[in-house]
Amino acid sequence: MLPDTDTRRLVLASGRGAVGRCRAFARDALARWDWPQAGEGERGEVARDVLLVVSELVTNAAQHADGPIELSLTRSAVGVRVEVADCSSEPPVLRRGGDPVLPGGHGLRVVDLLSWSWGSRPHEHGKTVWSEIAAPPAVLRPPG
Q1: Residue 142 forms part of a structural domain
Q2: What integer pLDDT is reported at residue 143 of this predicted model?
Q3: Entry's InterPro entries (predicted)?
Q4: Is the dihedral of CA 102, 103, 105, 107 positive or negative?
Q5: In CATH, what number is assigned to the domain containing residue 65?
Q6: Can you name the residues that pair with 71 across neighbouring β-strands?
Q7: Residues 69-117: pLDDT tens digits?
Q8: Is residue 144 part of a domain?
């Protein structure tokens, strides 16, 4: 039986290739936690959501904060928490409106739509942006 929570961390020394490394790291963590994988039908859609949130948060850190410094994934009985730390103290801003056809500025909207909750918190060297995503029904376990 898996513990109630499990956290996996990836420290990033450089921003080069960070999105690909972080997606691969997240894919591996989900597989170790026995989550249905992207491409495994309807239940795999949640894994795709997690990978997309990872991509968006890491990309935002690369574009607005000189790159991510750490990715953290925490599995619980009800879902997964994705955290991306960077060295900028500027909190993320969810843009309202704008032209949905034009590129750019949609990352946090995607995170907002796929997460049951998200936000940011400051830390000593910048901030951490986090997102919580519900587990697919096949993965849900009662707490305790």
Answers
A1: no
A2: 47
A3: Anti-sigma-factor_SerPK, HATPase_C_sf, HATPase_dom
A4: positive
A5: 3.30.565.10
A6: 10, 84
A7: 999 999 998 899 999 999 999 999 887 766 665 556 678 999 999 999 9
A8: no
